[in-house]
Amino acid sequence: MAESTFTSADFHNVVQKQILNAVYESLAAGKMDWELIAPFLDTAREICRSEFRETSRIRLHTVRAEGEGWVDAEEAYLGIAVTDRDDGQDWLSETYWISDIALADRDPEEVRRVVAALERSVAKLNAWLAEREKGGPDEAEPPSHPTES
Predict the structure, then answer these.
(1) CB atoms within 10 A of CB 82
(2) Which tens digit of pLDDT belongs to each residue from 9-64?
(3) Is 10 helix (H, G, I), strand (E, B) or coil?
(4) What secondary structure letter does DSSP report for 113?
């Protein structure tokens, strides 16, 4: 019987097992030093960033499910969903009422600034709708992305 060759897949499996064993031993020995944790955290953050860039859906919603149908929501709400690139399943799905976001800091001055910004947004949306009703361009301009929040 011919001896099988050691493949890169075999190497990967052996290395992965050795890394897992080292992690288990380190965890069992007590608290890990930050220098050991930081690279894993940085990698996890980069994976999440790329998942958000490639598969996220961030939308404003106006309806909610009720029974078998859809009804107008009490107010607009923000929906954030991120899909796993491998299996297509959402690993994050969150919704937030716009008013809850605006009131999060419980700072009246900040709420006033948010209300003013929302009014500017509504004016911009109404202008876009008016342009469409006059027979303006069918294509909407691409959304601009603020550099600060």
Answers:
(1) 19
(2) 777 778 888 888 888 887 787 777 888 889 988 988 998 888 889 999 999 999 99
(3) helix
(4) H
